[in-house]
Specification:
By secondary structure, the protein is mainly alpha-helical. The chain has ten helices and no strands.
């Protein structure tokens, strides 16, 4: 649950960072206009937003979007070096934060989905100027939730009910659910601004679902029957889902 105060505090931190860059001699005079213009635009957007929302308000899409965009821009700014490409990337991230104030939570479903399932850095470590931050993986349970396809697990019982005892229909529905997982996570693991999806994380989610479906007899049974199939594949599924986040929860660039 994201509150108004959290969103505005994240924006204020980004504003402070921009103000600091306008006073940094490394960005004068070449990038001063860019930093100062972004600082002014972000401050104006923040003030307009604060004037129409109550500090007690919680759990609105606009708040979560502003928090996410502001923290993302601040993270990029922490590793900023005075080069054209780096400053342009930072400026684009700040512009997305500014745009989040104006959207007031009304965004396309695709934009809202992008980045929500991407494994990322959990915080922005302090660094010396000119150095990039060391990768810090996000919490284990956050990665676990992102990698396990809850959407597929929710749909699978419906598929079993529809298919009944017809194995062909059951396999078709499993294939449809698999394609749904791939499509959903293709967008969900992209950067918020678009770009490449995290194919490895998608693959892990698909395998997790297939193991889950197999443990419930979705692909038939082992020679020992339903009980052996369920116990053996459930064990494999639990071990897979529990251990794989340790290998994949490093930040995606």
């Amino acid at each position: 649950m994201t509150t108004f105060t959290q969103a505005v505090e994240a924006a204020d931190a980004l504003i402070d960072q921009l103000q600091g860059l306008t006073e940094d001699p490394r960005y004068l005079p070449r990038f001063f206009d860019t930093m100062f213009g972004l600082r002014t635009a972000l401050g104006n957007a923040r003030d307009r937003f604060a004037s129409v929302h109550s500090p007690e308000a919680v759990d609105r899409p606009a708040f979560a979007t502003i928090l996410d965009r502001s923290e993302q821009a601040t993270m990029i700014g922490a590793a900023l070096t005075p080069g054209d490409a780096e400053v342009s990337r930072y400026a684009a991230a700040v512009q997305r934060a500014i745009a989040a104030f104006a959207n007031d939570g009304v965004a396309s479903s695709l934009s809202a989905l992008r980045g929500t399932l991407r494994l990322r850095r959990s915080s922005t470590p302090l660094i010396r100027p000119g150095r990039r931050p060391d990768p810090t993986p996000e919490p284990y349970y956050t990665s676990l939730v992102k990698l396990f396809p809850v959407e597929a697990v929710t749909l699978y019982p419906l598929a079993i009910g529809i298919a009944g005892n017809d194995i062909v229909i059951r396999l078709i529905l499993i294939a449809i659910i698999t394609l749904f997982v791939i499509a959903l996570r293709w967008f969900g693991t992209q950067e918020e601004s678009g770009g490449d999806a995290d194919v490895l994380a998608i693959g892990v989610s698909v395998i997790s679902f297939e193991l889950y479906a197999a443990s419930l007899g979705g692909f038939g049974y082992l020679p020992g029957g339903p009980a052996q199939t369920s116990q053996f594949l459930a064990f494999i599924t639990i071990m897979w889902v529990a251990l794989v986040p340790f290998a994949l929860r490093h930040p995606r660039r």
